[in-house]
Amino acid sequence: LPPLLSSVIKGPSLLPIIQADTPHEAVAIAKAMQDGGIGSVEVVLRTRQALAAITAIRTALPDLLVGAGTVLSANDAKACKNAGAQFLVSPASTPTLLEAMINTGLPLAPGVATPSEVALAYEFGLRELKLFPAHLSGGIEMLKALSGVFQQVKFCPTGGVSQTNLAQFLALPNVFVAGGSWMSPSVMVKAQQWHQITALAADATAIANTTKS
Ligand code: 3PG
């Protein structure tokens, strides 16, 4: 199995999402986040230039850990590795997708939303998973319920995580990192409000460093 994602995460226990239309925009967002204390980012495969964005951030900001999110297929997993992604995140888990992600050798956090999906990933030997969509699948109470039965599994909640509930999520012993898009609202990206993104990242970093360290 690849190394655990928790063993490679840099900086605070946060995985902010970067959704960028161009590599240039991606680097600007990543730089703004890094200026706020972020050490690891997830570039989502939801724009045409997402792979180029991963490569651009790796080159421009070598101290950041850069992963790929919204990995949906075996081809996505391979393409992300070739683009320089240092870890893989998916919103869902199927046997085919899990196998392909594991075969890249990259740390991974495949998405789950039910006990059966946790059990599927568990059968593959995986012990770090993404809970998605975290809020809609039960949020804090869901994570507490999962901790009782899957005692060795840790989660990255994403989907509905925000500045207001971040501390509650990170305080859970079975949460190793929290992710989401709240640090780079698309309105701020469009308006190139990099200082505001840095401020949101700094707020989240402060919460993460007091809750988990
Ligand atoms: C993801 O890809 O993890 C989600 O889109 C994050 O959800 P959010 O936008 O509610 O943070």
Written overview of the protein:
InterPro entries: Aldlse_KDPG_KHG, Aldolase_TIM, KDPG/KHG_AS_2. GO terms for molecular function: (R,S)-4-hydroxy-2-oxoglutarate aldolase activity; 2-dehydro-3-deoxy-phosphogluconate aldolase activity. Homotrimer. Pathway: Carbohydrate acid metabolism. The chain has 213 residues and is of the alpha/beta class. The protein has one domain: Aldolase class I (TIM Barrel, Alpha-Beta Barrel), CATH 3.20.20.70. It is 45% helix and 15% strand. It has helices at residues 5-8, 23-35, 50-60, 74-83, 95-103, 115-123, 139-149, 166-170, 186-190, 194-211; strands at residues 14-18, 40-44, 65-69, 88-89, 108-109, 111-112, 128-131, 154-157, 178-180. The strands form three sheets. It has a four-stranded parallel beta sheet with strand order 3-2-1-9. A three-stranded parallel beta sheet has the order 6-7-8. A two-stranded parallel ribbon has the order 4-5. Strand 4 (88-89), helix 5 (95-103) and strand 5 (108-109) form a beta-alpha-beta unit. The protein is globular, with a radius of gyration of 16 Å. The mean pLDDT is 98. The structure holds 3-phosphoglyceric acid (3PG). 3-phosphoglyceric acid binds next to strand 9.
Key words describing this protein structure:
213 residues, alpha/beta, TIM Barrel, four-stranded parallel beta sheet, three-stranded parallel beta sheet, 10 helices, binds 3-phosphoglyceric acid, 2-dehydro-3-deoxy-phosphogluconate aldolase activity, (R,S)-4-hydroxy-2-oxoglutarate aldolase activity, EC 4.1.2.14, Bifunctional 4-hydroxy-2-oxoglutarate aldolase/2-dehydro-3-deoxy-phosphogluconate aldolase
